[in-house]
Amino acid sequence: MKNMKKTTKNNLITYGIVIVAFVVVQLLIMTGNISSLLEGLMVPLCMYVILAVSLNLVVGILGELSLGHAGFMCVGAFSSAFFSLYTEDIITVAPLRFFLALLIGIITAAIFGILIGIPVLRLKGDYLAIVTLAFGEIIKNLVNVLYIGKDENGLHFSMKDAMSMNMDAATGKILINGPQGITGTPNDSTFSIGIVLVLITLFIVLNLINSRDGRAIMAIRDNRIAAESVGINITKYKLMAFSISAGMAGAAGVLYAHNLSSLTATTNNFGYNMSISILVFVVLGGIGSIRGSMIAAVILTLLPELLRGLSDYRMLIYAIVLIIMMLFNWSPKSIEWREKHLAFLKRNKEAKES
Question: Taking Cα atoms as reference points, which of 164, 199, 193 lies closest to residue 254?
Answer without folding.
Answer: 193
